[in-house]
User: Which sequence fits this backbone?
């Protein structure tokens, strides 16, 4: 399983989560239920943009999926790590 690192200058964790969920559900990102129904996207972005040591992990449920955002920039949905856009 290949893991990718988030480029904090061009990408945000919340956008990576939306892209990963769109892939998993085979749904256009604009058609997904808003992410803010499961987690505060702005807080998620702030946490990982300010997290320098890479030890933070946030796990939450989005509909029937488990999403994990890691301090090293990886996003996993249901245990599968999703690559960058």
Assistant:
């Amino acid at each position: 399983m290949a893991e990718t690192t988030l480029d904090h200058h061009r990408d945000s964790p919340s956008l990576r989560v939306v892209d990963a969920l769109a892939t998993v559900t085979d749904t256009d990102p604009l058609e997904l239920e808003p992410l803010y129904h499961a987690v505060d996207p702005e807080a998620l972005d702030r946490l990982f943009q300010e997290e320098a040591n890479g030890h933070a992990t946030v796990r939450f449920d989005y509909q029937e999926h488990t999403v994990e955002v890691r301090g090293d920039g990886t996003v996993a949905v249901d245990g599968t790590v999703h690559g960058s856009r």
